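We modelled the chain as a single entity of 140 amino acids. Its sequence is:
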Amino acid sequence: MKIAKRGLLLAVAILLIQSPVFAGVEPVGIDSKESYKMVMKSPKNTFIVDIRTRAEYEFVGHPDLPNGVPNIPLKFYPGWDTNANFVKDVEERYSKDTTLIMLCRSGGRAKVAAMVLLNAGFKKVLYMADSFEGSKDKKG
């Protein structure tokens, strides 16, 4: 029952976040260089969380940092089903006062994940705006 409630809560949060009437806190986007600097400056209190699918994490690769970069998917592939335990999975690993930086492929899912966590009571959640893919060059 708790899992079903969390899944429903996460689905509603995602729908609200994507709605123009969403009045929640807008997460701050930072670039990958700033993310790296923050982690290296405070590796015991600042963590990058890779919210891509397990396939993306395993086959495309992931950052290698001294304090680790766990994979806690926001969605599952195939089907892009929402991870009903996303907030719970993050809560099991980090306190709500820890600085977290969400990472995905291009920044979109990372921003949604940051909003979900901020609305769940996490206090310091940022998202990597350029994420794993990085910024586009002049050729796109």
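As a brief sanity check on the tokenised model: The longest helix spans residues 2-17. The mean pLDDT is 86.
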